[in-house]
């Protein structure tokens, strides 16, 4: 692996690594080190667990007694008096299987790495993290916790998930909204290519219930740039509808309509006080982690 920090390594390279826990730990620890500050702010006095020291951590949290006995730097992690619940919600429908000609990573793979990183970061801060995956139904649900081994449980679940079926954001979001009883930060990860009024109403319901929200829209370069240059057949991954066309005939109209749709989605998020972050699968995850961290600090 290159000496370049993990959070700046292109996702296509990370896609060759199967261990989500390893990827998440290296990306997040490298990212936190690059911040030149500790994320441990506003912590209470209740000790939770130990973790290994990483360059850039605040030295005052090192347990020097452990160091004296074992010659090993161990950081003490404390639980906040009122810690946050973070609910990570990942779309695993068939449309997320798309992998462009040059990206080297599918949208679902990128989304799973992002979910693992956020879960690791949440746990690192001493907060509770839960994980939920869906298509037209809820496929799995891991309730929020900060206990030792919880992130590994989430990563193990991520490794089993494959894109399948059609997506029903509205049904799943309404269901989750009824079951997320404690106020928290909801992280939504999807390509959101089938956004409609019902979906937006379901997302807004999270806000009415006093949850904070951040939407990560994951798109492939092909979807954003439409780089095709020869007659091509497009197949809808969920409906199986097909169309054969010449890209030069439809390119301008496609790009115009896509950009209009993206502007409308951004405006909705702005009006609803929801953070919105568009991610290209060709880009490293540093921007996503920065967006999460910014929203986490506002939420507190």
Number of strands: 10
The fraction of residues assigned to DSSP E strands is 15-25%
Q: What count of helical segments does DSSP give?
A: 10
Please identify the structural class as seen in this structure.
alpha/beta
Q: Quick check: average pLDDT?
A: 83
The rough form would be described as globular
Distance between the termini: 36 Å
In which order are the strands of the major sheet placed? Answer: 5-4-3-6-7-10
| Element pattern in H and E | HHEHEEHEEHHEHEHEEHEH
Range of helix content? 40-55%
* Stretches with pLDDT under 50, minimum 5 residues: 36-45
The Rg value, from CA coordinates, equals: 20 Å
Describe the biggest sheet? 6 strands, mixed
Task: Describe the protein in words.
It is globular, with a radius of gyration of 20 Å. The protein is an alpha/beta fold and 300 residues long. A 6-stranded mixed sheet has the order 5-4-3-6-7-10, with helices on both faces. Strands 1-2 form a two-stranded antiparallel ribbon. The chain has a two-stranded antiparallel ribbon with strand order 8-9. About 3% of the residues have low confidence. It is 41% helix and 21% strand. A hairpin with a 3-residue loop joins strand 4 and strand 5. The longest helix is centred in the last third of the chain and has 25 residues.
Summarize the structure.
This protein is an alpha/beta fold. The protein has helices spanning 11-14, 20-35, 64-70, 107-124, 150-160, 169-179, 197-208, 221-225, 247-271, 286-299, and strands at 46-52, 74-79, 85-91, 128-134, 138-145, 184-190, 212-219, 232-235, 242-245, 275-280.
């Amino acid at each position: 692996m290159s000496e370049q920090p993990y959070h700046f390594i292109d996702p296509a390279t990370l896609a060759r690594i199967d261990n989500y826990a390893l990827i998440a730990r290296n990306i997040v620890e490298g990212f936190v080190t690059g911040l030149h500050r500790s994320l441990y702010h506003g912590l209470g006095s209740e000790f939770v667990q130990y973790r290994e020291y990483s360059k850039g951590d605040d030295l005052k949290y090192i347990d020097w007694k452990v160091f004296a006995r074992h010659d090993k730097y161990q950081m003490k992690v404390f639980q906040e008096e009122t810690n946050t619940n973070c609910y990570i919600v990942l779309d695993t429908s068939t449309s997320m299987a798309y992998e462009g000609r040059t990206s080297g990573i599918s949208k679902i793979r990128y989304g799973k790495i992002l979910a693992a990183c956020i879960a690791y970061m949440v746990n690192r801060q001493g907060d509770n993290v839960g994980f939920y995956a869906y298509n037209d139904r809820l496929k799995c649900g891991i309730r929020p916790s900060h206990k030792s081994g919880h992130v590994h449980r989430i990563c193990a679940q991520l490794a089993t998930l494959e894109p399948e079926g059609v997506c029903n954001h509205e049904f799943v979001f309404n269901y989750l909204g009824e079951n997320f009883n404690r106020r928290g930060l909801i992280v939504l990860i999807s390509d959101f290519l089938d956004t409609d009024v019902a979906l937006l109403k379901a997302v807004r319901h999270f806000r009415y219930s006093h949850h904070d929200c951040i939407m990560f829209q994951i798109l492939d370069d092909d979807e954003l740039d439409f780089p095709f240059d020869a007659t091509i057949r497009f197949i809808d991954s969920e409906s199986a509808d097909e169309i054969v066309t010449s890209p030069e005939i439809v390119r301008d109209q496609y790009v115009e309509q896509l950009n209009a749709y993206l502007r409308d989605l951004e405006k909705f998020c702005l009006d609803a006080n929801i953070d919105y972050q568009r991610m290209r699968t060709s880009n490293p995850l540093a921007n996503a982690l920065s967006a999460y961290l910014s929203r986490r600090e506002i939420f507190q």
